[in-house]
Amino acid sequence: MKDKWVRILAPLLLLLLLLGAWEISVHWFDVKPFILPAPSQVLITFIDNFPMLTWHGAVTFLEILLGLLLGGLGGILLAIIVFYSPVLDKALYPLIIGSQMIPVFAIAPILIVWMGFGLWPKVTVAALISFFPLVVNVSDGLREPTEEAVDLFRSMGATRRQIFWKLRLPASLPALFSGLKVSATLAVVGATIGEWVGSHQGLGYLMLQANARLRMSLVFAAIVMLAILGLFLFGAIRIIERRVVHWRSAKADARGG
Amino acid sequence: MDGATTLQVENVSKIYHERSTSIPVLDSISFDLRAGTWTTLLGPSGCGKTTLLKILAGLEAPDSGRVIVEGSDSSRLGATAYLPQHDTLLPWRTALGNAILASEIGGKSIDDTKKEALELLDHFGLSGFESLYPSQLSGGMRQRLALIRTFLTHRSILLLDEPLGALDPLTRATVQKWLLGVWSELKKTVLLVTHDAEEALLLSDRILVLTERPARLQLDQAVNLERPRDRGSSDLAAHKSQLLSLLLKEGAAV
User: Fold this and answer.
1) Nearest CA of chain B to the CA of A253: how many Å?
2) Residues of chain A numbered 133-162 and touching chain B (CB < 8 Å)
């Protein structure tokens, strides 16, 4: 119980301390608001523009969510395909790793040309950036069961399909969720990049517009909104993870009690 | 020895090929198992006991010879109950969920098996633990659960690969006693692999001793000691030193 409070309060206290130092420095050194606004000013801007921030935030969140969904599903499927086909594994894996050396920033403008200014190029960028951690984590996860465990299943007369659904897939879930959490943070980056390159709505668009007009406090307010969305997504995945990977929390309970 | 022959091993040989060298592991091994008896395979570590057990379970094919389970020498997968060296309990399943695994894979009625599993868990000192996860169970409980899972395959031949190897001596003695109790009640045919001579003498009707690799059958001996056996008895000690000298002659660490 005490631990839980420390876990919540400690980072909060540190954040407040940093914000306080920021606030004082801005006033002390008389920094111009279009260079660096004080946190209090960002808060006021955030509250004043809340409906607009929510609207743009909703657009960005939809892109993040769809991107993560497509990228995630693609990553999981690719991991399964690569796991079961040694030929495709040899053919695809170097290409998949190679593809990660290409910065998404380089692809985003091309996607705008191909797909226009709408939702899909952003979703695609988010999907492209978020599929990789899942490929890596899920293919590791599928290899998690020992040869003995597979032998046990085979000795019971299990089919390949049963070994996948009852052994490999559940065994890969902890790794899958680790990957998904990394992917979620990457999807936020992907959607924002997609919006920077060409869009007429979303938080990335808002940041670019505000930046051009030197409305720095609105840029920061958009960043705060983006961070809130990211944290919300991360938290939601953790809640689902605890539900799905329930045996892990049972272990933690046993250790704690 | 009572009961009919339920498992026949005829001239089974196995050679592992690694790069350019080939390593003979099993060298024409033959023996029969009679229904309802307890046989123990004893041999030095790494002599191929596990390989032999895997062949019997149908997980590997012999290079020559054949294995006949209950009169059939076709695919043996699913014909026997096999317990690998480690308990291999699935961490995401509760004790009950692990116990009924074989029925689930075999497509049998899960409700019936659940009922049976609960009775077995209850009967064997795991009542109240059915909804716990393996990580919440002690080593001895995990091993008992793995054995219950093996019984619930509903096969008459149990192939057990050093199921008690990882337990501390006290827990090991407890589970040995428990296992004997279960065996005499359920009337299964057991083939146990171990490298512990005392364990073999405590539990079995018959002991098969293998040589070092490539493993050949060195000794096939009935154990005519009164049950229940006492590990402190002089008879058992005499048998044990005899077995040990045989194993030590093979230059093995026991």
Assistant:
1) 9
2) 146, 148-149, 151-158, 162
Pairing of strands B64-69, B5-18: antiparallel
CA B59, CA B159: separation in Å to the nearest integer?
12
Chain B residues with CB under 8 Å of A245 CB are 92
- The residue in chain A having the minimum alpha-carbon distance to the alpha carbon of residue B132 is A250
When computed from its CA atoms, the radius of gyration of chain A, rounded to whole angstroms, is 22
Q: Residues B189-199: pLDDT tens digits?
A: 999 998 888 88
Task: Enter the tokens of residue B252.
Answer: 């093995």
Cα atoms in the 13 Å half-sphere on the side-chain side of A214: 4
Residues β-bridged to residue A57? none
Contact indicator for A225, A46 with CB cutoff of 8 Å: yes
Pairing of strands B21-34, B5-18: antiparallel
State the Cα–Cα distance between residues A105 and A181, nearest whole angstrom: 22
**Is any Cβ of chain B less than 8 angstroms from the Cβ of A166?**
yes
Which of B226, B162, B170 has the alpha carbon at shortest distance from B200?
B162
Question: Is pLDDT of B253 > 70?
Answer: no
Å between A149 CA and nearest CA of chain B: 6
Domain count, chain B: 2
The tens digit of pLDDT for each residue in B110-149 reads: 888 888 889 888 877 788 888 999 999 988 889 889 989 9
Which residues from B are below 8 Å from A154, CB to CB? 58-59, 77
CB A83 within 8 A of CB A143: yes
Same domain as B116, residue B170? no
Q: Provide the residue range defining the domain that includes B103.
A: 89-154
Task: Walk me through the domains of chain A, giving residue ranges and CATH numbers.
Answer: 55-256 (1.10.3720.10)
Q: Could you read off the pLDDT of A118-131 as tens digits, one per residue?
A: 899 999 999 999 99
Is residue A198 within 8 Å of residue A121, measured between CB atoms? yes
A157/chain B closest Cα distance in angstroms = 4
> What CATH number should be reported for the domain holding residue B61?
3.40.50.300
Greatest CA span in chain B, whole angstroms?
Answer: 54
CA–CA min distance B246, chain A (Å): 30
Q: Quick one: pLDDT at residue A21?
A: 96
Tell me whether A170 touches chain B (CB under 8 Å): yes
Contacts of B58 in chain A (CB under 8 A): 154-155
